[in-house]
Write a structure and sequence with these properties.
The complex is a heterotrimer. Chain A is built from 24 helices and 31 strands. By secondary structure, chain A is an alpha+beta fold. In chain A, helix 1 packs antiparallel against helix 18, helix 12 runs parallel beside helix 23 and helix 17 runs parallel beside helix 18. Chain A is globular. In chain B, a hairpin with a 2-residue loop joins strand 3 and strand 4. Chain B starts with 7 loop residues before the first strand and ends with a helix. The longest helix of chain B has 16 residues. Helices cover about 35% and strands about 15% of the residues of chain B. Among the domains of chain B are: about 35 residues; about 80 residues, [2Fe-2S]-binding domain (DNA polymerase, domain 1), CATH 1.10.150.120. By secondary structure, chain B is α+β, with helices and mostly antiparallel strands. By secondary structure, chain C is of the alpha+beta class. Chain C is about 30% helix and about 20% strand. In chain C, helix 2 links the parallel strand 2 and strand 3. Chain C is globular and about 60 Å long. Classes of the chains: A alpha+beta, B alpha+beta, C alpha+beta. Chains in contact: A-B, A-C, B-C. At the A-B interface, helix 2 and helix 21 of A face helix 3, helix 4 and helix 5 of B.
């Protein structure tokens, strides 16, 4: 390894958007990969001392609630707020026809596609949309009561709830103010995907499998309700916001009220009660924040807006829709062609082709996928734990339908078609070699390990063939995909060595989302610097400073991991250079180096001790090396105490990383790491109930950094996946378009009793593009596992349930019992 | 007595009478044995072993009193409808949902919150941290309190008993498998300490 | 929640007097887990002006056997009923029902009186801000008939034909199976006659009447009872269908059977036809299955709840078999 910090910097720049394996991994790992490191946020969260935006209360603070439209498609003709204004405790009612509201800038741009219009609109395009008025009052209860006193004449318009029906040209317009030519609005770089020639592909097939399935509405359920607090300090804005990427709202806010300089916006991101994407992908909750800001200015008091739990339900997951699939396959299991059309509900960011995963993941050459994003009178749909939901769901269903059609073990079918971007595994092998990766068959390893743990060979059987002593039908399912770290973006980290105790402080923006990323960065820094883990700390910068990608377990760990490592490597060389060079000369002469007559490449650091490699007894602790500055500096202390007269310069370095990830249209990265998932179910064919008795997850993460955090994602994703597959469904009344189950009783997420044990296996092939060969985990499991339930149920019963969630009613219907 | 309308108002229940004799008769019949009437909404609570006296409005939930007014923000509001367990507190030894209890009905009760449990150094806290029984952390205090209530009455719970006791607590990040591990470890520490 | 007055009642007389004074303008609050949800969502056209707390009445939370019957105070907590040794051994269906109600926290707050008096859960009725002013709110019609009725009645509507919302209690069918009596502040009523469907009411209680005690006769020798609940989740959820059964056997055959389904009709549904089928039979899979089919023979499912018929039939069968230890 080079011992020159400039060379480390050059290497950092050379790694940007790297398309090959890590050329300079560490030779040994001490903290990376360990199970032990303690969560940095653990004590605060367990003892109730972690503060979330919902917990923030400021002196004089008002509470703001916004009006919900009772109709799915309606316009305000006339609004009387006089009674609301007179209610004791109401301090302000902001109306949609207020001049400042009307001329407000477009308050947000969602990933560049389109803006959310005025902060308070006069028209609603879903039941529950926040329109018309915002009330600020002394308590949340009074604000709520005031809303009920607002009288409105509405013009009700016809509405749509189903995307297939809404795509018909004769259907009424769901959003006439914006989509005047019909409800199929589609924009997005990825909505259509064509590779090869599917006519040719189908011609090669022995059989064609056709099916369609429907995923009904489901949503993220972030435990902390969307909320935010705005306080003006003069013309400075101080904001607390529940948002997993606070830098985005900050840039939006800088455009408000004629422009607020970003340096005058202080934005706090306390602990976050989970978002899973959700509202953070929609700039929709910026409307209430704008209202809070405007009212706060007018009344001179801080304002907190809070969504009710019901209001949080209005956005949804982007896998909602109807999937129409046609697959061509040879009798030996080779898939020759895939054609998928998705009628997707209200997706805004971004719209992916439903065939994307098939293309990325397999050797199938002839692929066509088309997403028709149709606007219906519901909320926006966005990534919910992952933006790849539709293509992953499609891949899972395709493979499992084909496996059952051929009577083939689905694990064999997967291996048969594994590949990259339409190329086979031989091509992949060449690519791995070319790019410097170890040549391993990730899917094969994952499947082998998973099958052993799950006892697949004893468990898999023909559909409907195994009845258990308890009368239920036994079934198993399998699903797979690649692991991904698709982030496009950049991240920065800085590390400084503290004067007081020579510990290392990592500095980057704070945005905790619960995956213990901060501890993970400390692990990397500790191993890179050679420090003890307890000598490395993370300082979350509150509102300014080094920007990092968030949320950061799945896809962003790669970018952030590189940035930390770069910073650490540069800093380590600076430390060693400083230890061997004279310190900055003063008028009296320079200080002697800590290690005189030594070159930096002769030194190393271990356990926070700097030592000479060829003579480890020549060592000095970091604490001794980093001398105090200021009044307690070298002149004052050393002459009195007779200690070494010495000093070290400030030790600080920053690192950064940029990548296109897999979105690079010119040079996409083939993904080599895989994941495999197994599920066992018991189906009660008399009641339609499904018991998920076991799940095993195998994830090739390339390289494990924070082992417990990775396992946590495997648990989290499996349970969320089972929940989505079995229980979760947002229900709208077909007659009025009103949401019927916007609460946690009628919208069901799994409790601790609702599924059996979950097995977690982590594989480390080193074939990831991240540092040390890592690749992400976090989004994927919650995205892949939902698709597992339908094939498991098929294996148990011999019938397909074509609609998710797989409820007892749908199973009984598929069984022909009702 | 209300001098304007010349009606006599019962200080216990607000019932009105035309005469003081009528009021007296009512009080003796209906409220016999009660102590002197106190100000409406005045309640005494022992919270984490400290005595407090509050003046509460009828529509304040126990959660609102403790979280918003007292500032113990450990308990959280996830559903606010009694379906998730994030607002769990221990009241008179029972794990209950503070968002579905009225503060005015808690006069004389003993309340334990997660802050008190942590301040006492209960081994659950350390076990939760060690076993990563949390991710975003929003539901964590509710789980800690429900677990503590379990360990108060059963210091050697089986996995099944732990799952049953925590089955009213929802976790969206889905950390469920880690909780029984943490609770068992804490239970062991409690038994060892005896 | 909006403002309201609050009264602590310290005796039954006081509670009754307050209820009489306020009439429909006040609601009684016991555990509070139902009424507070209704108030937070402001589901009713009129918000209660006052709440009358009856938890402050002493002597209504006991559980004891005396005089040949089990006597449970109306304020007894569901958790205590579920854990009670006598109830678990002799009145098993009730212990099981109480133990499967809601969640552990709610069982430490909810009373049995409140559980049988609780209001319907229909998601039209319960929608915020009285969005659907339905029959039960003295409004125009039932919105579930043409809407999403997946959790509604499979045995037709209420007496007046209009409302299809089911009774959501888990303990109510157990009490019916166990042939309980409900003692109120003014009378004693057979549990089967306790339930009624009217606007904003699910019981026959008058405006100034509260439940004080539930009496369950000691089961005769040869009796056993069981309770089964079907819900999408194993905790927290209200039942989609539940079933409580008490079987008395003599010489290996069923001499008496009481079978009650709930969450399938506007009030608890006594499956009389199923009782007729199983009486006199030896309990085996075939007999129990026949009884199950009889239990749903008069089902009139709506568009989205046909699956409940299959589940109800299955639960009746399995509850009968459970009574026989099978």
């Amino acid at each position: 390894m080079s011992t020159n910090s400039q060379e480390q910097t050059a290497r950092m720049l050379g790694m940007f958007d790297n398309l090959k394996a890590d050329e300079y991994p560490l030779k040994e790992y001490k903290y990376i990969g360990q199970k032990g490191p303690r969560r940095i946020d653990g004590l605060a969260k367990a003892s109730g001392h972690a503060d979330y935006t919902m917990d923030i209360q400021l002196p004089g603070m008002l509470y703001m609630r916004l009006l919900m439209s009772p109709y799915p498609n309606a316009k305000i003709l006339r609004m009387d707020t006089s009674k609301a204004e007179k209610l004791p405790g109401v301090r302000y009612v902001l109306r949609y026809d207020d001049p400042e509201v009307q001329k407000a800038e477009i308050i947000g741009k969602t990933a560049g596609f389109f803006g959310v219009d005025r902060p308070l609109s006069d028209s609603a395009h879903m039941e529950g949309e926040l329109v018309g008025a915002a009330v600020a009052a002394e308590t949340e209860d009074i604000a709520e009561e005031a809303l009920s006193l607002i009288e409105i004449d509405w013009e009700e318009r016809p509405f749509n709830l189903d995307p297939v029906a809404a795509s018909d040209p004769s259907a009424p317009l769901s959003f006439p103010e914006r989509y005047i030519d019909g409800n199929h609005w589609n924009r997005g770089a990825y909505d259509q995907l064509t590779h090869g020639d599917i006519k040719k592909g189908f011609a090669q097939a022995d059989r064609v499998v056709e099916f369609s399935f429907k995923r009904t509405a489901n949503t993220w359920i972030g435990p902390e309700r969307p909320c935010g607090v705005w306080r003006w300090n003069g013309d400075n804005a101080e904001v607390w916001l529940k948002h997993q990427r606070v830098h985005l709202p900050k840039s939006r806010m800088s455009e408000w009220f004629g422009g607020i300089p970003m340096s005058k916006i202080e934005i706090h991101s306390p602990y976050q009660g989970a978002s899973f994407g959700g509202w953070c992908q929609i700039d929709w909750n910026l409307g209430p924040l704008w209202c809070a800001a405007a009212v706060s200015k007018r009344v001179g008091r801080p304002v907190k807006y809070i969504f009710t739990r019901r209001e949080d339900f209005f956005g949804g997951s982007m896998d909602e829709g109807t999937y129409i699939v046609k697959v061509g396959v040879k009798n030996d299991g080779t898939i020759t062609a895939v054609d998928v059309t998705l009628y997707q509900v209200n997706a805004i960011w971004p719209v992916f082709s439903p065939a994307l995963h098939i293309h990325d993941n397999t050797r199938v050459q002839h692929v066509h996928g088309h997403t028709k994003s149709i606007w219906v009178n519901k909320g926006h749909t966005v990534p919910t734990r992952c933006e790849m939901l539709p293509p992953v769901l499609a891949q899972t269903m395709i493979f499992d339908h084909v496996a059952t059609e051929l009577g083939m073990d689905p694990t064999e079918l997967a291996l048969k078609n594994d590949g990259c971007m339409g190329h086979d595994m031989e091509w992949a092998r060449e690519e791995k070699e070319k790019r410097g990766f170890p040549v391993r068959d990730s899917l094969k390893e994952c499947i082998e390990k998973g099958k052993a743990e799950f006892k697949w060979d004893e468990s898999w059987h023909k559909p409907g063939a195994r009845k258990l002593p308890n009368g239920r039908m036994h079934g198993v399912g399998f699903s797979w995909a690649h692991e991904w770290d698709d982030s496009s973006g950049s991240g920065e980290f800085a590390i400084r060595i503290e004067r007081t105790d020579a510990t290392a402080t990592l500095m980057a923006m704070g945005a905790d989302n619960g995956v213990d990323a901060e501890a993970t960065y400390c692990q990397i820094a500790a191993d890179e610097l050679g420090f003890r883990l307890e000598d490395v700390n993370y300082n979350a910068q509150v509102y300014r400073g080094f920007y990092r990608m968030t949320p950061d377990s799945s896809t962003n760990m790669s970018i952030n991991g590189w940035a930390v490592r770069h910073a650490a490597r540069i800093l380590k060389q600076k430390i060693l250079e400083s230890a061997t060079s004279p310190s900055s000369p003063t008028q009296r002469g320079s200080f002697q180096p800590a290690f005189p007559n030594t070159k930096p490449e002769e030194l190393d650091i271990k356990n926070s001790l700097i030592y000479v490699k060829s003579d480890p007894n020549r060592q000095m602790s970091m604490a001794d090396f980093v001398r105090l500055a200021g009044e307690s500096g070298p002149f004052a202390t050393d002459e009195f105490l007779g200690t070494r007269v010495g000093w070290s310069e400030p030790l600080f370095a920053s690192g950064y990383h940029v990548q296109y990830g897999a979105y690079n249209p010119v040079n996409p990265r083939p993904r080599f790491c895989r994941q495999a998932h197994f599920m066992e179910v018991e189906v009660d064919t008399e009641t339609g109930e499904v018991f998920v008795t076991r799940v095993v997850n195998v994830n090739d993460v390339g390289k494990v950094i924070n082992r417990m955090s990775c396992e946590g994602q495997q648990y989290g994703g499996s349970i969320m996946g089972v929940s989505r597959a079995k229980l979760e469904e947002v229900v709208h009344d077909p007659v009025t378009g009103v949401m019927l189950n916007g609460n946690l009783l009628d919208y069901k997420i799994a409790t601790m009793k609702d599924l059996g044990p979950i097995g977690t296996i982590l594989v480390e092939t080193g074939m990831g593009y991240g540092p040390y060969g890592l690749i992400g985990i976090g989004e994927d499991i919650g995205t892949v596992v939902p698709g597992l339930l339908a094939p498991a149920v098929y294996n148990a019963t011999g019938v397909w349930v074509d609609e998710m969630p797989i409820t007892p009613a749908r199973i009984l219907k598929a069984l022909g019992k009702i | 007595m209300n001098r304007e309308t010349k009606s006599y108002v019962c200080p216990y229940c607000g019932e009105t009478y035309d005469s003081s004799d009528g009021l007296k008769g009512h009080v003796f019949k209906m409220h016999k044995g009660r102590g002197l009437p106190t100000a409406e909404g005045r309640i005494k609570l022992t919270i984490n072993k400290s005595e407090h006296i509050f003046q509460v409005e009828p529509n304040w939930t126990l959660y609102y009193l403790i979280h918003d007014k007292l500032g113990l923000t450990g308990a959280k509001q996830f559903c606010d409808r009694g379906a998730c367990g994030s607002c769990t507190m221990i009241v008179d030894g029972r794990p209950v949902l503070s968002c579905m209890m009225l503060a005015i009905e808690c006069d004389g009760k003993t309340v334990e919150t997660v802050e008190g449990i942590a301040a006492d150094g209960h081994p659950l806290i350390d076990a939760y941290v060690k076993h990563h029984a949390m991710q975003c952390g929003y539901c964590t205090p509710g789980f800690v309190v429900a677990s503590k209530a379990l360990l108060d009455r059963n210091q050697n719970p089986s996995e099944e008993e732990i799952v049953e006791a925590l089955s009213g607590n929802l976790c969206r990040c889905s950390t469920y498998p880690q909780h029984p591990i943490a609770v068992k470890e804490a239970a062991g520490k409690l038994r060892d300490a005896k | 929640m909006k403002e309201f007055k609050h009264f602590n009642a310290y005796s039954v007389d006081e509670a009754v007097a307050l209820m009489g004074r306020y009439g429909e303008r006040a609601s009684v609050i016991a555990g509070g887990t139902d009424i507070l949800g209704k108030m937070k969502d402001a589901i009713l056209p009129a918000y209660p002006e006052a709440l009358i707390n009856i938890k402050t009445i002493q002597g209504l939370s006991g559980i004891k056997e005396s005089g040949g019957m089990l006597r449970i105070g109306a304020l007894a907590l569901l958790a205590d009923i579920a854990d009670n040794a006598i109830i678990k051994s002799k009145y098993a269906a009730l212990a099981q029902a109480a133990g499967r109600t809601a969640s552990p926290h709610l069982r430490n707050m909810g009373t049995i009186g409140g559980n049988i008096c609780q209001d319907i859960r229909c998601w039209y009725y319960r929608n915020q801000n009285n969005r659907f002013s339905c029959l039960r709110k003295k409004g125009g019609r039932c919105y579930a008939i043409k809407g999403d009725n997946r959790y509604h009645s499979i045995f037709g509507g209420s007496v007046s034909g209009g409302c299809f919302a089911v009774h959501p209690s888990d303990t109510a069918p157990a009490l019916v199976a166990l042939d309980a009596k409900i003692v109120t502040s003014s009378r004693t009523i057979d549990v089967e006659k306790f339930f009624e469907v009217k606007p904003v009411k699910t019981t026959v209680l008058k405006g100034d009447e509260i439940v004080t005690e539930i009496q369950v006769p000691e089961p005769v020798a040869g009796s056993s009872s069981a309770f089964l609940k079907f819900a999408l989740r194993k905790s927290i959820d209200f039942p989609i269908v539940n079933c409580a059964v008490m079987i008395t056997s003599k010489d290996g055959r069923v001499s008496a059977a009481r079978i009650c389904l709930n969450a399938v009709h506007v009030i608890p549904y006594r499956a009389v036809k199923a009782e007729q089928v199983i009486t006199g039979r030896v309990i085996d899979e075939a007999a129990a299955d026949e009884a199950g089919a009889a239990a749903v023979s008069e089902a009139k499912p709506l568009e989205h709840n046909k699956y409940m018929v299959a589940i109800a039939r299955t639960l009746v069968k399995r509850a009968i078999l459970a009574c026989a230890g099978k």
